[in-house]
Every structure is written in C-alpha cells, then in structure tokens.
Amino acid sequence: MTDAALETRQGFDVRPLSDLMAAEVIGLDLSQPFDKETRDAVYRAFLEYQVLAFRGQKLTKDEQVAFTEQFGTLERHAARNRGTATHPLVHTVSNLNAEAKPSGTVSSTRWHTDKSFRPAPSMATVLHAITLPPDGGDTVFANMYAAYEALSESEKSEIDGVGVIHSWELSRDNIGRVISEEEKRDAPPMTHPLARVHPDTGRKCLFMGMHASHLDNVPMAAGRARIEALEAHATQPQLLYRHHWQEGDVLMWDNRCLLHHADTNFDAARYPRVLHRTCLRGTPTG
Does any domain span residue 285? Predict the structure, then answer.
C-alpha cells in the first residue's frame, strides 16, 4: 500500500495492510480512554477491515483491560488458560517454560476462532505484543466473508441452515490433550450456524475452525470431512492476511468472520514470544 491509501478519521490515521482485509491505525494512545466519537470511529474501522493493528503501544495489563472494555464485555478464558489471580481476564500467550526459557513449542498453530465453543462466541480478540522474536512469529488470518462468497450458489444452499457443533473437548483431543472434568463442565459443546450472519454487518461468513467438531444431524465422519474441505477452501492463499508483528503492536480482530493461527516461522527454542490476550464476549448465534 502507498501513502495515497492513508485515511484520516477522528484524529487518527488508517492505512490498509492488504487488499482483502487488515489496516494499521496510527496516532492513538490506547492507554488513554477514547471519547465516544473516537470509539465509534475505531469500531467502524474494525468492522470494515476486520483486523486493526494499533502501532507503537505499551500497555499494562490494566490498561489493556480498560481499552478492551470500551468495546464490550470481557470474556473469561478456558479453565486451563486463565491468567493470574490479579488479572484473570488477561491470558498470557507464551512459548516459555516453567523456568521462563523458550520451550521450542508454539501454541495455537491450527486454524481457529477464539471462544467459538461458548454460547455467545467471542466478538473480538485483542493481542498485545510484549516480547517478540527478531523475525517471524507471525499471526495469519483467513477471511471467512470471502470464503463464503467464493462458494458456488449450490454450495451455499447446501450449508445454509446447517448447524456445526463446536467442542472444546474435541479440539483439545485433536492436539493430544485429554481435558479435565472441570474443563468439560466449563465448556460444554455448543451448536452454531455453519454459515453465520454477522450481527453487525449482516454479511454471511463461514464459522468453523479447530473447535468445530461435526455437523448437526450428519454422520460424524461425513460431517468432519465436510468441515475439513471447507477449511481447505477457506484458507487458500488469496483469502489470507499475514501479520508481521512490530514492537508495540496491539492487534484487534473480529472473531465472528475470521480464522487465525500462529505461525512457527521462528526458532521457538531460542527466542521468546510473549503476548497478552483479552477477549470480548459476543452474542448468541441462534
């Protein structure tokens, strides 16, 4: 994108980062509360671009919580992923081990949308870069508006009205972890539309990812095969945006119409990658 793409809105600048989605926001200090006009302008940009990268930020956990709460109600994290006693709504995304050394392991590497197993799936995630590797450690996004719109009319008709069961238990089983009974009670399976109508824009998008277990009223094997085929369709290169993190980035993205995953394109056994995550509760899909 060139400088000609820069647009000024309510005292801040917005520059698209790709032709499909994502924009960087320049000129805002997220540690300070917004007035209503600025908050509304930021939210309009969020709906337009789905991913906003706020540059040059340095937030405490309290400041990140306060920023996030300007857009809705904070969502609690899964039982295993809760933060410290002082900041239970801030989840630390990290490749560090118990000795605070790089472990070589990166989490969240499969396509997913945050909290899709909740009755009211997450509206947005805010992720603040604390410590970054010198290169890599990207986050990649798939545009589920574009994925739905790229389907044929017969494919759209086939999936419209179909429910998909999102299961925290199955998604953990997929990565080789058996969850506790507490986690099962905390996150029972939920059914959501496979072709979801975005509550703010009215546009249809696919709604699935690694938490999607199977299709309602469809044999398990057939339903899982259909989900996997749709994910392969939705994650074609032309439907993706890759975010190259910069120091001070705060990323805010729309979980209702995107999939995302962390890339392992850095030496995770040598370099730390630490980010602070807050999530906003969405609305029921039914």
Answer: no
Locate 31 and state its tokens. Answer: 């540690």
Residues 5, 37 contacting (CB under 8 angstroms): no
d(CA 126, CA 249): 10
Mark out the alpha helices in 78-219 (DSSP H runs): 144-149, 153-159, 168-173, 181-186
Q: Please identify which residue in the block is written with the tokens 């917004």.
A: 34
Per-residue model confidence (pLDDT) at position 1: 45
In tens, the pLDDT along 69-125 reads 999 999 876 554 545 667 889 999 999 999 999 999 998 899 999 989 888 999 999
Asked if residue 14 belongs to a domain, the reply is yes
Residue 108, token pair as written in the block: 């969240």
Q: What is the mean pLDDT of the chain?
A: 91
The answer to the question of residue 150 being in a domain is yes
Cβ proximity of 162 and 195 under 8 Å: yes
User: Which residue range forms the structural domain that includes residue 13?
Assistant: 3-280
Residue 222 lies in a domain: yes
Amino acid 181: pLDDT: 73
As for how many domains the chain has, the answer is 1
DSSP state of 264: -
- The structure's pTM equals 0.91
Res 185: pLDDT: 74
The burial class, CB within 10 Å (0-12 / 13-18 / 19+), for 66 is: middle
Kindly list the distances between the CA atom of residue 170 and the CA atoms of 174, 176, 240, in Å, as whole numbers in the listed order.
6, 10, 26
We report the CATH number of the domain holding residue 129 as: 3.60.130.10
